[in-house]
Amino acid sequence: MEILIVGAITGAGVVTGLLFAFSNFAMQALATMPNEQGMRAMQRINEKIINPIFVAFFLGTPLLCAVVGVDALMNLESERSGLLLCGAILYLVGPFAITMLFNVPLNNRLAEASLSEADVVWPDYQWRWQRWNHTRTYVGIVSIVLLAFGLIG
């Protein structure tokens, strides 16, 4: 089980680190560009992020967290199970579910938008997307901390 926990922590770290980079500087940099350029750059990023390495981490980490969470539920008498369960649930709710429920639909709408609509679409997208990105980033960080303490607990 420890190997699966390490895998979940690693995957959560990779995905949450990516989200952190967007919250910390990437979206800020895109926001300084003219609307059409920033919007086009984000459209390209959203196209290129769907690649085997990202997909493996993005889909594999929730699977590992689900296994860790189920194991923690089955071993509630263990001191570390509460930390592992909470960490796994937070990852599933934060970086995974928020992405699927909020950021992906925003990305899909951005992909369908014409650059001629950039002055309206891009500022609204940035505000909504960043709000959800900040949320999933912070939840992801807390999940990593809990999983790590559960591993050493």
Give a written overview of the molecule.
This is DUF1772 domain-containing protein. InterPro entries: Anthrone_oxy. Keywords: Membrane, Transmembrane, Transmembrane helix. This protein has one domain (2-152). The two termini are 13 Å apart. Helix content is 88%, strand content 0%. The protein has helices spanning 2-31, 35-48, 52-74, 81-112, 118-152. The radius of gyration is 17 Å and the shape is elongated. The model has no long low-confidence stretch (mean pLDDT 97). The protein is mainly α and 153 residues long.
Please summarize what this structure is.
The chain has 153 residues and is mostly helical. It has helices at 2-31, 35-48, 52-74, 81-112, 118-152. Helix 3 runs antiparallel to helix 4 and helix 4 runs antiparallel to helix 5.
Task: Give me some keywords for this one.
153 residues; mainly alpha; 5 helices; 88% helix; elongated
Largest sheet composition: none
Mean pLDDT: 97
Output the structural class.
mainly alpha
Task: Tell me what portion of residues adopts beta-strand conformation.
Answer: under 5%
State the helicity in percent bands: over 70%
pLDDT under 50 segments (min length 5)? none
The number of strands is 0
Supply the number of structural domains: 1
Tell me the number of helical segments per DSSP (H or I, 4 or more residues long): 5
From N to C, what is the helix and strand string?
HHHHH
What is the CA-based Rg, rounded?
17 Å
Span between N and C termini? Answer: 13 Å
Shape: elongated
Protein name: DUF1772 domain-containing protein
Keywords: Membrane, Transmembrane, Transmembrane helix
